[in-house]
Hints:
This protein is of the alpha+beta class. It has helices spanning 15-26, 69-76; strands spanning 7-11, 29-36, 41-51, 54-63. The protein has a four-stranded mixed β-sheet.
Amino acid sequence: MLDRIDHVGIACHDLTDKIAFYESVFDLTVMSREVNKEQGVREAMLRIAAAPGGSSWIQLLEPLAPDTPVGRFLARRQRRAGMDQPPRSVWPAAAPRSAPFLGRTRRRWSATSPMK
Length: 116
């Protein structure tokens, strides 16, 4: 049985802005920050919650340079709608399984017309 997810990594262009967003919107706290030169990122770990198996985390990753793996990842996805933006809705953790789906539905996207 799955009792926790260790962490979810989220690539971002500006670590300071994303930290402020997650602190203000989700009331999360940065537990550690570090520069990982080997992976070419500046990172911050935000604790989500404790579970029976241990804590779960959000790992925010900002590239140190455009030619790093995270830098290339962001460059490839730079023009896609919704990337590096706050989510439109969040599935509440306490919502019953019968609750209506609150997330986005699949939509087509093209380079000439943004998602609506």
